[in-house]
Specification:
seven-stranded mixed β-sheet; four-stranded parallel β-sheet; binds 6-O-phosphono-beta-D-fructofuranose
Length: about 325
């Protein structure tokens, strides 16, 4: 018979994402609803090692649903990569009478959680929080929808100046090793070209496409480049190469950077976070562990953590075809 859950710890780990605060709020309030204690763990696994804990109740999470970032903060912990560090963290949880953990983060955070579970048989549930949307077992990770709109609005602004100066802009966006942000925002912002890690169509094809755009009367262009793209060694060298080979284009580069991780979460992300928080807590109460909460076809799902970590996400071929047609 699984030990009854009387107290749940919640932490955020890895790159922050809009919607994390909404997820924390949901975990805390679902615990309150089930009359279970909830303990906020600050600064991810490092805070767990140091016992940086605070009891949270339904009122502790007032007025945070609309805020980007994570009030529990996040950190990367080298110490948690050691067995000694994980033992310290385990002892802290026991000292605080915490029975289970909700980990809000990406695949790196889930890996840490899974190793922790294997060593201490400590119940854990993951909520996918990253703007990259690169986690198997869910159609949406928390923060992805907000980041798409943040990036698209930034590209719209860049297009204003590009068209005012007849310039070609290379806009680098985040996404780590996948191209979901680049592909969707490129289509949404009407980019002439989108370069993603999942496709490497080569420099010649890029030049041909830009020459065709020019011939068809386009006086300015936007090329959205996912940071993981391998067409060029980096976006600056890519821009330099194109400028050398297309002398009638004046080229500029804009790297959007960490602003893509900020901002007020969208309604979609707030609702998704609230749904996932309830599911995570109630899954632990049911005595289950080592799952990631996901959403597929608008239904909440549970994916074994090892599958979520190892599973490959696949870029949507239909979306790729749409992007090709739109750039005619
Ligand atoms: O995983 C989210 C993310 O923003 C990636 O898109 C990006 O490559 C990475 O984090 C940046 O990490 P850091 O915040 O450590 O610079």
């Amino acid at each position: 018979m699984a030990k009854s859950i009387r107290s749940i710890g919640v932490l955020t780990s890895g790159g922050d994402a809009p919607g994390m605060n909404a997820a924390i709020r949901s975990v805390v309030r679902t615990c309150a609803y089930h009359q279970i204690d909830c303990v906020g763990i600050f600064r991810g696994f490092q805070g767990m090692i140091e016992g940086d804990f605070k009891f949270l109740n339904a009122r502790s999470v007032n007025n945070i649903i609309q805020k980007g970032g994570t009030f529990l903060q996040s950190a990367r912990s080298q110490e948690f990569r050691t067995k000694e560090g994980r033992k310290k963290a385990f002892d802290q949880l026991i000292n605080y009478d915490i029975d289970a953990l909700v980990i809000i983060g990406g695949d790196g955070s889930f890996t840490g959680g899974m190793v922790f579970h294997e060593e201490f048989k400590f119940p854990i549930i993951g909520i996918p929080g990253t703007i990259d949307n690169d986690i198997y077992g869910t159609s949406f990770t928390l923060g992805y929808d907000t980041a798409l709109n943040t990036v698209m609005e930034a590209i719209d602004k860049i297009r204003d100046t590009a068209s005012s100066h007849n310039r070609l802009f290379f806009v680098e966006v985040m996404g780590r090793d996948v191209g979901y942000i680049a592909l969707n925002t490129g289509i949404g912002a009407g980019a002439e070209e989108i370069l993603i890690p999942e496709e490497n169509l080569g420099l010649d094809r890029l030049l041909e496409s830009l020459k065709r755009s020019k011939k068809s009367g386009k006086t300015s262009s936007i090329v959205v480049v996912a940071e993981g793209d391998k067409t060029g060694s980096n976006v600056f060298e890519l821009a330099e190469y194109v400028e050398e080979n297309l002398p009638d284009y004046e080229v500029r580069v804009s790297v959007l950077g960490h602003m893509q991780r900020g901002g007020r979460p969208s309604c979609f992300d707030r609702v998704l976070a609230s749904r996932m928080g309830v599911k995570a807590v109630e899954t632990l109460i049911e005595g289950k562990t080592n799952f990631m909460v996901g959403i597929q076809n608008d239904a909440l799902t549970l994916t074994p953590l090892d599958k979520a970590i190892k599973g490959e996400t696949i870029i949507d071929q239909e979306l790729l075809r749409v992007s090709d047609i739109m750039s005619i």
